[in-house]
Amino acid sequence: MASTAKPPIPDASSSRRAWTVVVLLVLFMMINFMDKAVLGLAGDHIRADLRLTDTEFGSIGSVFFLLFSVSGVAVGFLADRVPVKWLLVGLVAVWSASQLAVALPAAGLLTLMITRVTLGMAEGPAFAMANHTAFSWFPDRERALPSTLLTTGGAFGVALGAPALAVLITNAGWRSAFLVTGLLGVLWIALWLAKGGEGGYSARAAAADGPRVPYLRLITRGTVLGGLAAGFAAYWTMAVAITWLPQYLQRVHGMELERASVIAAATQVVGIVVMLSIGYASTRMTRAGRSSRAALGYLGGAAVVLSGAAMLLVTRSGGGAAFILVLMVAYTFGNSFFGLMQAAAAELAPVRQRGAVLGTVTALASLAGALGPVLSGAIVDAAGTAEAGFRNAFDLGAALMIVGGLLAAAFVRPARDRAALDAARRPAAAPAH
């Protein structure tokens, strides 16, 4: 019989190391999102320099996701066999090479297309692998906050990086932003090799994990399917915002790039507060004995629905304070679901299969990123005006968010699904004689 002993409570030194690793992983996610955001921030400059239509530019945003999902699944399965410390080094090395290649003076449209594919291939597994690493330092009930912190890493990357990158783009050309983000990746690798690593919770839990569960059975549980519905919608919105929001602010509201980047950054600062608050609330709920369904499904689903409702108002609120308010709600609350989705999937999956499950869940949800930017570009092109086109594109995202959030609230039930999986794994009782 497998041991059921609980992992020992970590001492102060291991706790400090755990939070040091979390800080490094937050920096990892910051660079990840700065890499993504460069394209949207430099969009007008790139379109003018390379003479692109909206549909063509949207295609550049979408090719980023061409291998995003495939690599997410592949690296997720690899993480159950290879030390994730070295997987993270490899991923960031590819990010940096992709960004630095675009910084070369001779790089044109073909280089930009190819490097967005390789960047997406390397960033596809990033969030799942960061969570997989962080979870090795914490027990189930403590994971919502670390995972939420990793989600805020993306918001920090945009909040801090967007204004700085906008200044670079305006004063030193759009290629300079790719150069800086590439060099930041190289610096992170050096820090990770010095201080990074995996914790002991995964190894101890794996020893008591029991037999493996068929992956099809894992990913067809209600928790995963409900989480995927909301995660798909949230990824759609995020990918569209990264590619198109700066241009929406410039083309519809007549803002200069610097002002648009400041508004985007301010939105992300609010998002950091929102995501940390929701992650903390989720952790407090589980510590107080509330079910993971309430702390992850109800709370996360409600956040996604709220963002969707606000998104309907983004193109209908005119300008001024009302516009800024709905913009902040639309592009912040839903993002908090990413961390909760990872925590829910991690609670459901056996530890030895966690990397593969997290990678697969993230990969499937992120398929939205391959569709959202290019379809939104086509919608803008097809409309009579940019204002009408952006309204139609954002309304589609709002509908996805509202439906996805409701499905998450209804079906994300990690404890019940894990109990059902455990019961199916137990050997059948011997018949009485």
Describe this structure in words.
By secondary structure, this protein is mainly alpha-helical. The protein has one domain (16-421): Growth Hormone, Chain: A (Up-down Bundle). Helix content is 79%, strand content 0%. The protein contains 20 helices and no strands. The chain starts with 11 loop residues before the first helix and ends in an 8-residue tail after the last helix.
Report the sheet with the most strands, covering strand number, pairing sense and barrel closure.
none
Examine the coordinates and then state which fold CATH places here, giving the name of the CATH topology: Growth Hormone, Chain: A
How many structural units, i.e. domains? 1
Q: H/E order of the elements? A: HHHHHHHHHHHHHHHHHHHH
Please write the CATH class name: Mainly Alpha
Strand content: under 5%
Low-confidence stretches: 1-12, 428-433
Distance N to C terminus: 24 Å
Shape: globular
Q: How many H/I helices?
A: 20
CATH homologous superfamily name? MFS general substrate transporter like domains
The total count of strands amounts to 0
Q: Which percent bin holds the helix content?
A: over 70%
